Amino acid sequence: MPATPPSTTDNWWCDMNTEYAFVGFSYEVTACTSVSLALQTEFTDIRQTFNGRYVRLYGACDRAGFYDDVINAAWNAGVGIHALVWFGFDGGNIWQTRRDALFATLQSNPKAKFVTRVVQFGSEPLYDNVLSTGDLTAQILAAKATLSNLDIPVTISELAYGYQVRGGATDVLSAVDLIDAHMLPFFSQQASTASASWPIVLNDMNWFIANGQGKKIYLSQNGWPSVTYQGVQPNSPNAVADVQNEADYYKLLDSQCGYFKTVPGGGVGWFAHIYSDAQEPGYGIYNDVGSLKFPFSPITSC
């Protein structure tokens, strides 16, 4: 990073055509205090150990100034952020406070537009039915207007199924600047082992390609769990959750680098969900005491 922020974002970001294969990690932030202490170390680890370009935030930390800490850690580590307005699972309107706090920081912090690659307006907001498609579209368009002076794109992070159960949600797809797609084949009714899951992945990919209006695609919440528990349970009796299958899923994605490179819209970049089991049990690349669960050196180009 330069000593001070440039005067413009012109020519700042790499072309999205180069952003295919592995691009980074989802990173859960609900444990505000411990996360704040770890941001710099772990963002730097994502960049230097795994060649990650981005950190995709997941969950919410409502402490005042938290996103400033994220910006500073990202700037120092040399990673970009896929920011998130988190709706949560309990209803209510706290998401509006989170939206306003994030947007205020994006406008006030001079480094914000140089590390914030995109704002995700919700994680599975369609699947969770948090807003009507019309209201969600209106929020996306309002966010794009609010952030237009910063050139920060806006999207939602969503399952193909979330769109499908809303009749395709074409108004939402038309409003978003790019597509952040959730890819969680473990939960398919056809799931068995991770190494056999490519047809499930491809089925959802084909839907996004057919309906995504040629927009760039990232697999934002994307992984295979190593354990099952309440809330992470398969819909197929043949689905296997263990460390080997978690590792095999990412090997499968690596093996399809050539496919991801050539998907219309600039290729497909994928995130690993999630950085550590301490953030979300079973999905971490690291276990809950900070050791790698399996060798992880995903390819970033082919």
From TrEMBL:
Gene Ontology molecular functions: glucan endo-1,3-beta-D-glucosidase activity
Cellular localisation: Cell membrane
GO terms for cellular component: cell surface; extracellular region; fungal-type cell wall; plasma membrane
Transmembrane annotation, as ranges: none
Topological relation to the membrane, as annotated: Single-pass type II membrane protein
InterPro entries xref list: Beta-glucan_modifiers (IPR050732), GH (IPR017853)
EC number(s) recorded for this UniProt protein: 3.2.1.39
Domain of life, per lineage: Eukaryota
Alphabetical keyword list: Carbohydrate metabolism, Cell membrane, Cell wall biogenesis/degradation, Glycoprotein, Hydrolase, Membrane, Polysaccharide degradation
Catalytic activity: Hydrolysis of (1->3)-beta-D-glucosidic linkages in (1->3)-beta-D-glucans
Keyword presence, Hydrolase: yes
Any Gene Ontology biological process: cell wall organization
Coiled-coil zones: none
Function: Glucanases play a role in cell expansion during growth, in cell-cell fusion during mating, and in spore release during sporulation. This enzyme may be involved in beta-glucan degradation. Active on laminarin and lichenan.
Family: Belongs to the glycosyl hydrolase 17 family.
Name by which UniProt lists this protein: glucan endo-1,3-beta-D-glucosidase
Source organism: Armillaria gallica (Bulbous honey fungus)
